[in-house]
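Repro:
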Amino acid sequence: MSETTVPVTTLTSTSSPTSASSVKTRGRGARISLGALQIVLGLFYAFASALPKLIAHPSAAEAFDKLGWGSTGMYLIGALELAGGLALLVPLLSSVAAVALSALMVGAFVVNVTVIHGPYVATPLILILPLALIAWARRNHTTELVRWVRRRTTTPAGAAPDPRTAHRPPDRSR
């Protein structure tokens, strides 16, 4: 060997079947925990956050009147929160929904800091953390969604879809 050549060594796997199964269990546990988090946040946005706005609960109406947005703003924000909460429960939409709800929470934080000055100023920031986790962990769903939309929009009207991909289910192995 010359002086500039580094010897190549191979690494041997010392993992046992139990360590491989613990990795699978940990991955499965993480997927279950993330799914539970999505369900909890989806229900929170649909019921605890959107519902008071959509039924014009006095506390929500008062807050939006203070902002000067009235009932139109209240119903609009409520509808966005309801749509985002429900979309968190749809696997293909979960990442996009988490990003959209994060943007909504940035707006809520700015409004809370500049106009409302209420006791729950930090709540939108706290909600952004699990939403960011969902958006990052489910990012492969976004690429699947983009692929699905492109497939739908690039097929000319009346033409048959590509037979190689027409009956193939989305790849969810990642």
